[in-house]
Amino acid sequence: MSTNTLQFDTQHEDMIHDAQLDYYGKRLATCSSDGSIRIFEVSSQQQKFVEALKSHTGPVWQVSWAHPKFGSVLASCSYDGTVLIWKETGSGFAVIHKHDKHQASVNAIAWASHELGPVLLCGSSDGKISLVSFTETGTWEVQMIRSAHATGVNAVSWAPVIAANEPTNLKLFATGGCDNNVKIWAYSDETKTHDVVQTLSGHSDWVRDVAFAPNSGLPRTYLASCSQDKNVYIWMRDAQSESLDWKQQALEPFPDVVWRVSWSLSGNVLAVSCGDNRVTLWKENVKGEWECISEANESSQTA
Fold first, then answer.
1. Among 9, 33, 199, 300, which residue carries the largest CB count within 10 Å?
2. What is the pTM of this model?
3. Which residues contact 41 (CB under 8 A, 6 or more apart)?
4. Could you please report the per-residue DSSP string of 58-105?
5. How are strands ordered across the β-sheet holding 106-111?
6. Torsions phi, psi of 110, nearest 5?
7. From CA 214, how far away is CA 174, in angstroms rounded?
8. pLDDT of residue 300
């Protein structure tokens, strides 16, 4: 399996923590411990620097593009305890909202599916998660959910909004924390907030990332989690099942800490980023087993 790789110097002055393409794959946002975000226009052959965003006062951990129906909007979260929401105007990107309700580093952010509106989910080292929403009245609302993971939240991910055999849009997300657990949250019409509906235990160290697979028409929901314990688990739930139980399947053990997991757009290939500077791609075979189909190392060699 061969891939074309575009490499370039971002001009960041410290470690890069995240890189995200926009909805159309034409804009790339990167963020770094140098406290900045850098925007590039990219194609298969080249890249062009657009702008550097420097409003955070600490390392920037993640960036996330909103759906284009809301404009060219980017969110960022930082060790400085804030989340900034940026919007592109005629003169470049400007901060349109600052979320500063957390008392510690904000480690993870994720926009909900556009069907749910402009809603940003945030997870922090203070153990709380928050939802930042832009309302129909033109104001920003923040809902804080305390004691999500008592010792800190490292990762957040929204479930596909439309799942097989579900009569209504799902308002479901997952979080991973320093308590070694993955938690599934669902919106309650009674409490008007998200409540924990399932706690998935199995990791023996901090959960570093969680990722729901995009819905690809399969009658099953997939959630991947990775951890400091060098393991990746695939959690599966059949849509037609009345049970809330998730089945767990482990990938082959990894040689180092596993930092990130990410699904392909089709939802059937999982990329795993490991502390040994390798990225591996995994796919489920006809027997229901997950096997490695490709591997890339730091020098961009694929196998």
1. 33
2. 0.93
3. 26, 27, 28, 47, 48, 50
4. S-EEEEEEPPGGG-SEEEEEETTS-EEEEEEETTEEEEEEEE---SS-
5. 106-111, 119-124, 129-134, 140-145
6. -160, 130
7. 14
8. 55
Euclidean distance between CA atoms 38 and 231, whole angstroms? 32
β-pair partners for 28: 21, 40
Count of CB atoms situated within 10 Å of the CB of 241: 12
Distance CA 206, CA 219 (A): 30
Phi/psi region, residue 53 (left: phi>0; alpha: psi -120 to 50; beta: rest), is: beta
Nearest CA-CA partner of 184 in 195, 193, 169, 170: 195
C-alpha triplet 32, 24, 209: angle, nearest 5°: 45
Place of tokens 């995994």: 282
Give dist(CA 24, CA 127) in Å, integer. Answer: 34
**Number of continuous H segments (helices) and E segments (strands) in the chain:** 0, 24
Query: pLDDT tens digit string along 161-197?
Result: 865 445 455 789 999 999 999 999 999 888 889 999 9
21-58 confidence digits (pLDDT tens): 999 999 999 999 999 999 999 987 889 999 999 999 99
SS3 (DSSP) at 68: helix
Model confidence pLDDT, tens digit, residues 119-153:
999 999 999 999 999 998 999 999 999 999 999 99
Cα–Cα distance for residue pair 227/238, rounded to 1 Å: 24
**Strands of the sheet with 232-238, listed across from one edge:** 207-212, 220-227, 232-238, 247-250
* DSSP code per residue over 11-49: --SS-EEEEEE-TTS-EEEEEETTS-EEEEEE-SS-EEE
